[in-house]
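QA checklist item 7 of 12: single-chain prediction sanity check.
[x] sequence parsed
[x] length recorded as 158
[x] structure emitted
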Amino acid sequence: MKYRIFTMSLTLVMLAVIPLIYMGKFDPIAFFDSGFSFGSSEFMKLKAKAPSNLTSAVTDQKVQVYKWRDENGVMQFSNTPPLDVNNAEQVLLDPNSNVIQAVKAPEKEEPKQMVKTTTTPSNPYSVKGMKKAIDDARNVENLMQQRHDQQQKALGNI
């Protein structure tokens, strides 16, 4: 009986705390970290090192950034040119340009008059039905590959 009461109370506490965590009103990491680590946590150390003027990565203005690879081959981005690197590329990010071009909608055609036929629908489990399903899958695969190639081409400048 005591076990059942304990599990029910623990469940009620969890149901009360989880929405607070998701809404951002309660930070369990900071709560438990401040009580158990007699000093500052790793998160607080990283937060102290972060620039204080960094508010948001999203903007509606054009942004000029520099892009280069460091000695380990890692791609680096910064809003100021690096002092020790000569091969930094200047990139202008325009929020008003699309990364992926829009697809033109097909023009509406006038509906053709339907002619009644007495054909029976093909069985999807027949040989013809399976061939049609495989052909449809290949067409979808080709379409997805074309879309992927277009996205890679559009993102190649970044």
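[x] summary fact logged: The helical segments are 2-23, 28-36, 42-49, 127-155.
[ ] second reviewer sign-off
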